[in-house]
Amino acid sequence: MTHVYLDHSAAAPLLPEVREAMTPYLDRDFGNPLSLHDWGDAPRDALEEARAQTAALIGAGSPEEIIFTSSGTESNNFAVKGLSLAQQKKGKHIVISAIEHFSVMNSVKFMQNLGYEISEVPVDKNGFVDPEDVKKAIRPDTVLVSIMHANGEVGTIQPLAEISKITKEKKIVFHTDAVATCGTIPVNVKELGVDALSLAGNPFYGPKGSAALWVRRGVRILPLLDGGIQEGGRRAGTEDIAAIIGLGKAAEIALRDLVDRGQKLTQIRDLLINGLPSKIPRVVVTGDLKKRLPGHASFCVEFIEGEGMLMLLNSQGVAVSSGSSCTSRALKASHVLLAMGYNHEIAQGSLLFTMGIQNKPEDIDYVLNVMPPIVDRLREMSPVYSKFVKAPKGGQGNAGI
Amino acid sequence: MPVYSEKVMDHFMHPRNVGEIENADGVGEVGNPVCGDMMTFYIKVKDNRLEDVKYKTFGCGAAIAVSSMVSEMAKGATIEEAQKITPESVAKMLEGLPKQKFHCSNLGAQALNKAIDDYLAKTGKLKADPAKCCPFCDHEDSENDPVCQQGCPVNQPEIKSP
Best mutation site among A381, A386, A389, A390 for testing chain B: the one with the most B CBs within 10 Å? Predict the structure, then answer.
Protein backbone atom coordinates (compact mmCIF):
# COMPACT_ATOMS: atom_id res chain seq x y z
CA MET A 1 0.00 0.00 0.00
CA THR A 2 1.08 3.58 -0.64
CA HIS A 3 2.08 5.45 2.52
CA VAL A 4 1.93 9.23 2.55
CA TYR A 5 2.74 10.94 5.82
CA LEU A 6 1.29 14.46 5.92
CA ASP A 7 1.10 15.09 9.66
CA HIS A 8 4.49 16.65 10.36
CA SER A 9 3.01 19.14 12.82
CA ALA A 10 2.10 16.20 15.05
CA ALA A 11 5.46 14.48 14.73
CA ALA A 12 8.37 14.66 12.33
CA PRO A 13 11.09 12.08 11.74
CA LEU A 14 14.60 12.59 13.07
CA LEU A 15 17.28 13.47 10.50
CA PRO A 16 19.97 10.76 10.24
CA GLU A 17 22.72 13.37 10.82
CA VAL A 18 20.94 14.49 13.98
CA ARG A 19 20.65 10.97 15.29
CA GLU A 20 24.32 10.41 14.57
CA ALA A 21 25.27 13.56 16.47
CA MET A 22 23.18 12.45 19.44
CA THR A 23 24.37 8.86 19.75
CA PRO A 24 27.69 9.43 21.58
CA TYR A 25 25.85 11.27 24.36
CA LEU A 26 23.53 8.34 24.93
CA ASP A 27 26.55 6.10 25.09
CA ARG A 28 30.20 6.95 25.67
CA ASP A 29 29.81 10.63 26.62
CA PHE A 30 27.14 10.10 29.24
CA GLY A 31 28.76 12.45 31.75
CA ASN A 32 27.23 15.37 33.55
CA PRO A 33 28.31 18.79 32.24
CA LEU A 34 28.53 20.07 35.80
CA SER A 35 31.14 17.44 36.77
CA LEU A 36 34.65 18.73 37.18
CA HIS A 37 36.30 15.44 36.22
CA ASP A 38 37.05 14.44 32.65
CA TRP A 39 33.64 12.84 32.10
CA GLY A 40 32.07 16.31 32.28
CA ASP A 41 34.19 17.82 29.52
CA ALA A 42 32.69 16.39 26.34
CA PRO A 43 29.04 16.97 27.35
CA ARG A 44 29.87 20.48 28.60
CA ASP A 45 31.53 21.47 25.33
CA ALA A 46 28.74 19.91 23.30
CA LEU A 47 26.10 21.68 25.38
CA GLU A 48 27.66 25.06 24.68
CA GLU A 49 28.07 24.26 20.99
CA ALA A 50 24.38 23.37 20.78
CA ARG A 51 23.53 26.63 22.53
CA ALA A 52 25.48 28.59 19.94
CA GLN A 53 23.86 26.64 17.07
CA THR A 54 20.39 27.31 18.48
CA ALA A 55 21.16 30.99 19.03
CA ALA A 56 22.39 31.28 15.44
CA LEU A 57 19.12 29.87 14.07
CA ILE A 58 17.17 32.81 15.48
CA GLY A 59 19.85 35.51 15.24
CA ALA A 60 20.16 35.84 19.01
CA GLY A 61 22.73 38.33 20.32
CA SER A 62 24.40 35.82 22.61
CA PRO A 63 24.19 32.04 23.18
CA GLU A 64 23.62 32.68 26.90
CA GLU A 65 20.20 34.00 26.04
CA ILE A 66 19.11 30.45 25.12
CA ILE A 67 17.55 28.35 27.91
CA PHE A 68 17.04 24.71 26.98
CA THR A 69 13.72 23.17 27.98
CA SER A 70 11.86 19.91 27.43
CA SER A 71 9.15 21.04 24.98
CA GLY A 72 7.49 23.96 23.28
CA THR A 73 4.85 23.60 25.95
CA GLU A 74 7.40 24.08 28.72
CA SER A 75 8.91 27.08 26.92
CA ASN A 76 5.48 28.70 26.63
CA ASN A 77 4.62 27.96 30.26
CA PHE A 78 7.99 29.32 31.32
CA ALA A 79 7.56 32.51 29.28
CA VAL A 80 3.99 33.30 30.30
CA LYS A 81 4.44 32.49 33.98
CA GLY A 82 8.08 33.44 34.45
CA LEU A 83 8.00 36.75 32.58
CA SER A 84 4.81 37.97 34.26
CA LEU A 85 5.77 36.84 37.76
CA ALA A 86 9.11 38.65 37.44
CA GLN A 87 7.14 41.90 36.99
CA GLN A 88 4.46 41.45 39.64
CA LYS A 89 5.16 44.86 41.11
CA LYS A 90 4.55 46.57 37.79
CA GLY A 91 1.16 45.06 37.12
CA LYS A 92 -0.97 41.99 36.54
CA HIS A 93 -2.33 42.22 33.02
CA ILE A 94 -1.44 39.95 30.09
CA VAL A 95 -2.42 40.31 26.42
CA ILE A 96 -2.64 37.26 24.15
CA SER A 97 -4.36 36.46 20.85
CA ALA A 98 -7.51 34.35 20.57
CA ILE A 99 -5.69 31.63 18.61
CA GLU A 100 -2.73 30.81 20.85
CA HIS A 101 -1.61 27.24 21.47
CA PHE A 102 -3.14 25.52 24.52
CA SER A 103 0.16 25.84 26.38
CA VAL A 104 -0.24 29.63 26.27
CA MET A 105 -4.03 29.58 26.68
CA ASN A 106 -3.90 27.39 29.76
CA SER A 107 -0.87 29.17 31.23
CA VAL A 108 -2.75 32.46 31.20
CA LYS A 109 -5.69 30.68 32.85
CA PHE A 110 -3.28 29.66 35.59
CA MET A 111 -2.17 33.28 35.92
CA GLN A 112 -5.82 34.30 36.06
CA ASN A 113 -6.22 32.12 39.13
CA LEU A 114 -3.33 34.04 40.68
CA GLY A 115 -5.23 37.29 40.19
CA TYR A 116 -3.93 38.34 36.79
CA GLU A 117 -6.27 39.80 34.18
CA ILE A 118 -6.14 38.59 30.60
CA SER A 119 -7.13 40.36 27.39
CA GLU A 120 -7.63 38.25 24.28
CA VAL A 121 -7.05 40.09 21.01
CA PRO A 122 -9.32 38.84 18.18
CA VAL A 123 -8.22 37.65 14.73
CA ASP A 124 -9.76 38.27 11.31
CA LYS A 125 -11.11 35.60 8.98
CA ASN A 126 -7.59 34.77 7.73
CA GLY A 127 -6.28 34.46 11.28
CA PHE A 128 -4.39 37.76 11.46
CA VAL A 129 -4.04 39.82 14.61
CA ASP A 130 -4.47 43.55 13.94
CA PRO A 131 -1.59 45.42 15.67
CA GLU A 132 -4.05 48.23 16.41
CA ASP A 133 -6.07 45.80 18.54
CA VAL A 134 -2.94 44.96 20.52
CA LYS A 135 -2.36 48.67 21.05
CA LYS A 136 -5.93 49.10 22.30
CA ALA A 137 -5.61 46.12 24.65
CA ILE A 138 -2.48 47.42 26.37
CA ARG A 139 -3.08 49.09 29.74
CA PRO A 140 -0.78 50.83 32.24
CA ASP A 141 -0.59 47.58 34.21
CA THR A 142 0.16 45.33 31.21
CA VAL A 143 3.32 43.31 31.82
CA LEU A 144 3.34 40.84 28.93
CA VAL A 145 2.11 40.50 25.37
CA SER A 146 2.28 36.95 23.99
CA ILE A 147 1.34 36.40 20.36
CA MET A 148 2.35 33.38 18.33
CA HIS A 149 4.50 33.74 15.24
CA ALA A 150 2.48 31.31 13.13
CA ASN A 151 -0.53 29.22 13.96
CA GLY A 152 -0.06 25.48 13.61
CA GLU A 153 -3.66 24.85 12.63
CA VAL A 154 -4.16 27.42 9.87
CA GLY A 155 -0.57 28.38 9.06
CA THR A 156 -1.07 32.16 9.16
CA ILE A 157 2.12 34.12 9.95
CA GLN A 158 1.53 37.14 12.19
CA PRO A 159 2.93 40.65 11.60
CA LEU A 160 5.17 40.49 14.68
CA ALA A 161 7.49 43.30 13.60
CA GLU A 162 4.52 45.67 13.53
CA ILE A 163 3.26 44.52 16.89
CA SER A 164 6.72 44.88 18.46
CA LYS A 165 6.83 48.55 17.44
CA ILE A 166 3.93 49.04 19.82
CA THR A 167 5.33 46.93 22.65
CA LYS A 168 8.70 48.70 22.38
CA GLU A 169 7.06 52.10 22.48
CA LYS A 170 5.05 51.07 25.54
CA LYS A 171 8.02 49.22 27.06
CA ILE A 172 6.15 45.96 27.46
CA VAL A 173 7.77 42.54 27.32
CA PHE A 174 6.77 40.76 24.10
CA HIS A 175 6.92 36.96 23.89
CA THR A 176 6.19 34.87 20.82
CA ASP A 177 5.50 31.18 20.47
CA ALA A 178 7.59 30.46 17.38
CA VAL A 179 7.43 26.66 17.59
CA ALA A 180 5.73 26.47 14.18
CA THR A 181 8.16 28.85 12.45
CA CYS A 182 11.66 28.27 13.87
CA GLY A 183 13.66 26.14 11.48
CA THR A 184 10.84 26.39 8.93
CA ILE A 185 11.02 30.02 7.83
CA PRO A 186 13.70 32.64 8.56
CA VAL A 187 13.31 33.84 12.14
CA ASN A 188 15.40 36.71 13.46
CA VAL A 189 14.64 37.97 16.95
CA LYS A 190 16.07 41.40 16.21
CA GLU A 191 13.97 41.88 13.08
CA LEU A 192 10.87 40.60 14.85
CA GLY A 193 11.58 42.90 17.78
CA VAL A 194 10.51 40.37 20.40
CA ASP A 195 11.92 39.97 23.92
CA ALA A 196 11.34 36.24 24.34
CA LEU A 197 10.72 33.38 21.92
CA SER A 198 9.76 29.71 22.27
CA LEU A 199 11.08 27.10 19.85
CA ALA A 200 11.09 23.31 19.64
CA GLY A 201 13.33 20.86 17.81
CA ASN A 202 10.91 18.33 16.35
CA PRO A 203 9.33 20.68 13.74
CA PHE A 204 12.76 20.93 12.10
CA TYR A 205 13.61 17.24 12.42
CA GLY A 206 15.28 17.38 15.82
CA PRO A 207 14.30 15.02 18.62
CA LYS A 208 11.08 15.32 20.59
CA GLY A 209 11.78 16.56 24.09
CA SER A 210 14.19 19.18 22.77
CA ALA A 211 13.20 22.83 22.95
CA ALA A 212 14.34 26.23 24.12
CA LEU A 213 13.20 29.57 25.35
CA TRP A 214 15.19 32.56 24.19
CA VAL A 215 15.05 35.54 26.55
CA ARG A 216 16.78 38.75 25.52
CA ARG A 217 19.57 39.83 27.86
CA GLY A 218 18.24 42.25 30.45
CA VAL A 219 14.70 40.81 30.50
CA ARG A 220 13.90 39.26 33.87
CA ILE A 221 12.29 35.84 34.18
CA LEU A 222 11.48 33.76 37.23
CA PRO A 223 12.33 30.04 36.92
CA LEU A 224 9.57 27.44 36.89
CA LEU A 225 11.94 24.74 38.06
CA ASP A 226 13.97 25.57 41.13
CA GLY A 227 17.04 23.58 42.00
CA GLY A 228 20.62 23.65 40.80
CA ILE A 229 22.54 26.10 38.68
CA GLN A 230 21.91 24.54 35.29
CA GLU A 231 20.99 26.94 32.47
CA GLY A 232 22.31 29.88 34.46
CA GLY A 233 19.99 29.05 37.35
CA ARG A 234 16.96 29.71 35.18
CA ARG A 235 16.04 26.09 34.54
CA ALA A 236 17.28 23.59 37.09
CA GLY A 237 17.62 19.86 36.43
CA THR A 238 20.34 17.75 34.81
CA GLU A 239 20.35 18.50 31.10
CA ASP A 240 19.07 15.99 28.55
CA ILE A 241 22.34 16.31 26.68
CA ALA A 242 21.47 14.00 23.78
CA ALA A 243 18.24 15.90 23.09
CA ILE A 244 20.02 19.26 23.33
CA ILE A 245 22.79 18.10 20.97
CA GLY A 246 20.06 16.93 18.59
CA LEU A 247 18.39 20.32 18.78
CA GLY A 248 21.66 22.12 18.05
CA LYS A 249 22.51 19.89 15.10
CA ALA A 250 19.00 20.16 13.67
CA ALA A 251 19.19 23.96 14.07
CA GLU A 252 22.49 24.07 12.22
CA ILE A 253 21.10 22.02 9.32
CA ALA A 254 17.84 23.99 9.28
CA LEU A 255 19.74 27.28 9.01
CA ARG A 256 21.81 25.87 6.14
CA ASP A 257 18.82 24.45 4.24
CA LEU A 258 16.13 26.97 5.19
CA VAL A 259 15.70 28.56 1.76
CA ASP A 260 15.77 25.28 -0.19
CA ARG A 261 13.33 23.59 2.15
CA GLY A 262 11.03 26.60 2.10
CA GLN A 263 10.89 26.73 -1.68
CA LYS A 264 10.32 23.01 -2.05
CA LEU A 265 7.63 22.83 0.62
CA THR A 266 5.83 25.92 -0.68
CA GLN A 267 5.65 24.32 -4.11
CA ILE A 268 4.21 21.06 -2.77
CA ARG A 269 1.84 22.94 -0.47
CA ASP A 270 0.44 25.02 -3.32
CA LEU A 271 -0.24 21.88 -5.37
CA LEU A 272 -2.62 20.82 -2.62
CA ILE A 273 -4.02 24.27 -1.79
CA ASN A 274 -4.88 24.86 -5.43
CA GLY A 275 -5.70 21.27 -6.26
CA LEU A 276 -8.15 20.24 -3.57
CA PRO A 277 -10.73 23.04 -4.00
CA SER A 278 -10.60 22.54 -7.78
CA LYS A 279 -11.26 18.80 -7.42
CA ILE A 280 -13.92 19.01 -4.73
CA PRO A 281 -16.71 21.60 -4.56
CA ARG A 282 -17.29 23.53 -1.33
CA VAL A 283 -13.87 23.11 0.17
CA VAL A 284 -12.52 26.21 1.91
CA VAL A 285 -8.84 26.92 2.46
CA THR A 286 -8.43 28.15 6.05
CA GLY A 287 -5.78 30.74 6.89
CA ASP A 288 -4.00 33.17 4.61
CA LEU A 289 -2.87 32.07 1.16
CA LYS A 290 0.32 34.15 1.04
CA LYS A 291 1.57 34.75 4.58
CA ARG A 292 1.51 31.08 5.36
CA LEU A 293 3.85 28.35 6.62
CA PRO A 294 5.60 26.61 3.69
CA GLY A 295 4.48 23.00 4.25
CA HIS A 296 1.05 23.79 5.59
CA ALA A 297 -2.31 23.24 3.86
CA SER A 298 -5.51 23.44 5.89
CA PHE A 299 -9.10 23.16 4.76
CA CYS A 300 -12.68 22.90 5.86
CA VAL A 301 -14.68 20.44 3.80
CA GLU A 302 -18.33 21.42 4.06
CA PHE A 303 -21.16 19.09 5.15
CA ILE A 304 -18.94 16.39 6.63
CA GLU A 305 -16.83 15.84 9.70
CA GLY A 306 -13.05 15.61 9.94
CA GLU A 307 -12.57 12.34 11.78
CA GLY A 308 -14.43 10.34 9.15
CA MET A 309 -12.20 11.81 6.45
CA LEU A 310 -9.11 11.19 8.57
CA MET A 311 -10.05 7.52 9.04
CA LEU A 312 -10.84 6.94 5.39
CA LEU A 313 -7.62 8.68 4.34
CA ASN A 314 -5.79 6.45 6.82
CA SER A 315 -7.34 3.40 5.17
CA GLN A 316 -5.73 4.66 1.93
CA GLY A 317 -2.36 5.10 3.65
CA VAL A 318 -2.54 8.87 4.12
CA ALA A 319 -1.88 10.42 7.56
CA VAL A 320 -3.44 13.82 8.33
CA SER A 321 -4.95 15.78 11.27
CA SER A 322 -8.26 17.45 11.92
CA GLY A 323 -9.49 20.11 14.32
CA SER A 324 -13.01 18.69 14.62
CA SER A 325 -14.60 18.04 18.03
CA CYS A 326 -14.51 14.32 17.44
CA THR A 327 -10.78 14.15 16.92
CA SER A 328 -10.11 16.32 19.95
CA ARG A 329 -10.43 14.56 23.26
CA ALA A 330 -12.00 17.69 24.68
CA LEU A 331 -14.87 17.18 22.22
CA LYS A 332 -14.71 20.82 21.21
CA ALA A 333 -14.22 22.24 17.75
CA SER A 334 -10.99 24.13 17.14
CA HIS A 335 -10.90 27.42 19.06
CA VAL A 336 -8.76 28.76 16.23
CA LEU A 337 -11.39 28.22 13.52
CA LEU A 338 -14.16 29.50 15.77
CA ALA A 339 -12.12 32.64 16.55
CA MET A 340 -11.68 33.17 12.80
CA GLY A 341 -15.45 33.26 12.46
CA TYR A 342 -16.21 29.78 11.12
CA ASN A 343 -19.36 28.25 12.58
CA HIS A 344 -19.29 24.92 14.39
CA GLU A 345 -20.68 22.96 11.48
CA ILE A 346 -17.95 24.13 9.10
CA ALA A 347 -15.22 23.83 11.73
CA GLN A 348 -16.16 20.14 12.15
CA GLY A 349 -14.98 19.53 8.59
CA SER A 350 -11.45 20.72 9.26
CA LEU A 351 -8.55 18.85 7.73
CA LEU A 352 -4.86 19.65 8.15
CA PHE A 353 -2.01 18.48 5.91
CA THR A 354 1.52 19.31 7.05
CA MET A 355 4.29 18.35 4.67
CA GLY A 356 7.91 17.52 5.34
CA ILE A 357 11.16 17.41 3.42
CA GLN A 358 10.60 13.76 2.50
CA ASN A 359 7.36 14.50 0.69
CA LYS A 360 7.26 14.65 -3.10
CA PRO A 361 4.79 16.18 -5.55
CA GLU A 362 3.60 12.62 -6.29
CA ASP A 363 2.35 12.38 -2.71
CA ILE A 364 -0.01 15.27 -3.39
CA ASP A 365 -1.15 13.69 -6.67
CA TYR A 366 -2.05 10.60 -4.68
CA VAL A 367 -4.02 12.63 -2.11
CA LEU A 368 -5.83 14.50 -4.87
CA ASN A 369 -6.86 11.14 -6.34
CA VAL A 370 -8.09 9.50 -3.16
CA MET A 371 -9.81 12.50 -1.61
CA PRO A 372 -12.81 13.06 -3.95
CA PRO A 373 -14.35 9.59 -3.49
CA ILE A 374 -13.85 9.85 0.29
CA VAL A 375 -15.66 13.18 0.42
CA ASP A 376 -18.42 11.90 -1.90
CA ARG A 377 -18.93 8.86 0.26
CA LEU A 378 -19.27 10.85 3.50
CA ARG A 379 -21.45 13.49 1.87
CA GLU A 380 -23.78 10.78 0.58
CA MET A 381 -24.30 9.82 4.21
CA SER A 382 -24.60 13.34 5.57
CA PRO A 383 -28.00 14.76 6.57
CA VAL A 384 -26.47 18.22 6.33
CA TYR A 385 -25.50 17.61 2.72
CA SER A 386 -28.90 16.23 1.76
CA LYS A 387 -30.52 19.34 3.25
CA PHE A 388 -28.15 21.47 1.21
CA VAL A 389 -28.92 19.57 -1.99
CA LYS A 390 -32.68 19.81 -1.42
CA ALA A 391 -32.62 23.49 -0.45
CA PRO A 392 -33.52 26.07 -3.08
CA LYS A 393 -30.35 27.36 -4.71
CA GLY A 394 -28.97 30.80 -4.11
CA GLY A 395 -29.70 31.22 -0.44
CA GLN A 396 -26.87 29.07 0.82
CA GLY A 397 -24.20 30.40 3.09
CA ASN A 398 -20.56 30.99 2.32
CA ALA A 399 -18.55 28.75 4.58
CA GLY A 400 -20.33 30.04 7.63
CA ILE A 401 -18.44 33.30 7.71
CA MET B 1 -6.29 2.74 13.94
CA PRO B 2 -6.52 0.77 17.15
CA VAL B 3 -8.65 3.44 18.87
CA TYR B 4 -11.80 1.65 17.68
CA SER B 5 -12.86 -1.99 17.98
CA GLU B 6 -12.86 -4.18 14.88
CA LYS B 7 -16.64 -4.13 14.91
CA VAL B 8 -16.73 -0.32 14.91
CA MET B 9 -14.21 -0.23 12.06
CA ASP B 10 -16.27 -2.76 10.09
CA HIS B 11 -19.46 -0.71 10.45
CA PHE B 12 -17.58 2.50 9.69
CA MET B 13 -15.92 1.12 6.57
CA HIS B 14 -19.06 -0.73 5.41
CA PRO B 15 -22.06 1.07 6.88
CA ARG B 16 -25.35 -0.82 6.48
CA ASN B 17 -28.72 0.68 5.49
CA VAL B 18 -27.48 4.19 4.65
CA GLY B 19 -30.04 6.46 3.03
CA GLU B 20 -33.42 8.08 3.35
CA ILE B 21 -36.92 6.57 3.06
CA GLU B 22 -39.35 8.53 0.96
CA ASN B 23 -42.69 8.93 2.70
CA ALA B 24 -41.26 7.40 5.85
CA ASP B 25 -43.74 6.51 8.59
CA GLY B 26 -41.50 8.14 11.15
CA VAL B 27 -38.50 10.46 11.10
CA GLY B 28 -36.23 11.23 14.06
CA GLU B 29 -33.49 13.81 14.09
CA VAL B 30 -31.02 14.35 16.91
CA GLY B 31 -27.71 16.05 17.25
CA ASN B 32 -25.73 19.06 17.99
CA PRO B 33 -23.11 20.50 15.66
CA VAL B 34 -21.24 21.86 18.69
CA CYS B 35 -20.15 18.34 19.51
CA GLY B 36 -20.11 17.38 15.88
CA ASP B 37 -22.64 14.59 15.51
CA MET B 38 -26.06 14.73 13.86
CA MET B 39 -28.27 11.80 12.87
CA THR B 40 -31.57 11.44 11.06
CA PHE B 41 -33.38 8.09 11.20
CA TYR B 42 -36.21 7.04 8.87
CA ILE B 43 -38.53 4.10 9.56
CA LYS B 44 -41.15 2.22 7.58
CA VAL B 45 -43.61 0.29 9.77
CA LYS B 46 -45.78 -2.66 8.77
CA ASP B 47 -47.84 -4.79 11.19
CA ASN B 48 -46.09 -3.24 14.18
CA ARG B 49 -42.68 -4.17 12.76
CA LEU B 50 -39.89 -1.90 11.46
CA GLU B 51 -39.98 -3.13 7.90
CA ASP B 52 -37.23 -0.74 6.86
CA VAL B 53 -34.77 1.49 8.72
CA LYS B 54 -32.47 4.00 7.09
CA TYR B 55 -30.41 6.93 8.30
CA LYS B 56 -28.09 9.75 7.43
CA THR B 57 -25.25 10.73 9.74
CA PHE B 58 -22.91 13.68 10.05
CA GLY B 59 -20.18 12.76 12.45
CA CYS B 60 -17.09 10.86 13.38
CA GLY B 61 -16.29 7.21 12.82
CA ALA B 62 -18.09 6.19 16.00
CA ALA B 63 -21.24 8.11 15.04
CA ILE B 64 -21.37 6.38 11.66
CA ALA B 65 -20.76 2.94 13.17
CA VAL B 66 -23.44 3.55 15.83
CA SER B 67 -26.03 4.52 13.21
CA SER B 68 -25.21 1.48 11.16
CA MET B 69 -25.44 -0.85 14.16
CA VAL B 70 -28.73 0.66 15.34
CA SER B 71 -30.22 0.21 11.87
CA GLU B 72 -29.17 -3.43 11.89
CA MET B 73 -30.56 -4.04 15.37
CA ALA B 74 -33.85 -2.31 14.58
CA LYS B 75 -34.61 -3.62 11.12
CA GLY B 76 -37.24 -6.33 11.37
CA ALA B 77 -37.82 -5.76 15.08
CA THR B 78 -41.22 -4.97 16.58
CA ILE B 79 -41.83 -1.43 17.83
CA GLU B 80 -41.52 -2.67 21.42
CA GLU B 81 -38.25 -4.47 20.71
CA ALA B 82 -36.81 -1.45 18.92
CA GLN B 83 -37.77 0.83 21.80
CA LYS B 84 -35.56 -1.28 24.03
CA ILE B 85 -32.42 -0.41 22.05
CA THR B 86 -30.27 1.79 24.27
CA PRO B 87 -26.89 3.50 23.90
CA GLU B 88 -25.50 0.81 26.20
CA SER B 89 -26.81 -2.09 24.11
CA VAL B 90 -25.50 -0.46 20.93
CA ALA B 91 -22.05 0.06 22.46
CA LYS B 92 -22.06 -3.56 23.61
CA MET B 93 -22.92 -4.84 20.13
CA LEU B 94 -20.07 -2.70 18.77
CA GLU B 95 -17.65 -4.34 21.20
CA GLY B 96 -17.22 -1.08 23.05
CA LEU B 97 -16.70 2.58 22.23
CA PRO B 98 -13.87 4.82 23.39
CA LYS B 99 -14.77 6.56 26.63
CA GLN B 100 -14.92 10.06 25.19
CA LYS B 101 -17.13 8.88 22.33
CA PHE B 102 -19.75 7.10 24.37
CA HIS B 103 -21.72 10.17 25.28
CA CYS B 104 -21.33 12.31 22.22
CA SER B 105 -21.47 9.91 19.31
CA ASN B 106 -23.88 7.39 20.72
CA LEU B 107 -27.05 9.13 19.61
CA GLY B 108 -28.36 6.40 17.31
CA ALA B 109 -30.78 4.80 19.76
CA GLN B 110 -32.16 8.19 20.60
CA ALA B 111 -32.66 9.12 16.96
CA LEU B 112 -34.39 5.78 16.31
CA ASN B 113 -36.67 6.26 19.31
CA LYS B 114 -37.52 9.72 18.10
CA ALA B 115 -38.49 8.27 14.73
CA ILE B 116 -40.66 5.69 16.51
CA ASP B 117 -42.28 8.42 18.63
CA ASP B 118 -42.92 10.38 15.46
CA TYR B 119 -44.66 7.33 13.94
CA LEU B 120 -46.66 6.71 17.11
CA ALA B 121 -47.69 10.35 17.30
CA LYS B 122 -48.75 10.39 13.66
CA THR B 123 -50.85 7.28 14.10
CA GLY B 124 -52.39 8.59 17.32
CA LYS B 125 -50.72 5.98 19.49
CA LEU B 126 -48.70 8.50 21.44
CA LYS B 127 -49.54 11.79 23.01
CA ALA B 128 -47.64 14.26 20.89
CA ASP B 129 -44.70 15.85 22.58
CA PRO B 130 -43.57 18.63 20.31
CA ALA B 131 -40.80 19.95 22.55
CA LYS B 132 -37.36 19.38 21.10
CA CYS B 133 -34.90 18.71 23.85
CA CYS B 134 -31.16 18.85 23.81
CA PRO B 135 -29.78 15.30 23.84
CA PHE B 136 -27.36 16.21 26.62
CA CYS B 137 -29.51 18.10 29.09
CA ASP B 138 -33.19 18.80 29.65
CA HIS B 139 -33.00 22.21 28.05
CA GLU B 140 -35.78 22.72 25.49
CA ASP B 141 -34.47 24.04 22.21
CA SER B 142 -36.49 26.06 19.79
CA GLU B 143 -37.20 24.26 16.52
CA ASN B 144 -35.02 26.69 14.57
CA ASP B 145 -32.04 26.46 16.81
CA PRO B 146 -29.63 23.62 16.03
CA VAL B 147 -27.35 24.35 18.98
CA CYS B 148 -28.36 23.82 22.58
CA GLN B 149 -28.16 27.23 24.19
CA GLN B 150 -26.76 25.64 27.33
CA GLY B 151 -23.67 24.90 25.29
CA CYS B 152 -23.90 21.16 25.78
CA PRO B 153 -21.93 19.01 25.98
CA VAL B 154 -19.24 21.60 26.53
CA ASN B 155 -20.63 22.55 29.92
CA GLN B 156 -21.07 18.97 31.01
CA PRO B 157 -18.66 18.47 33.90
CA GLU B 158 -17.84 14.88 33.12
CA ILE B 159 -18.52 12.37 30.42
CA LYS B 160 -19.40 9.07 31.96
CA SER B 161 -18.95 5.77 30.31
CA PRO B 162 -20.56 2.58 31.54
Answer: A381
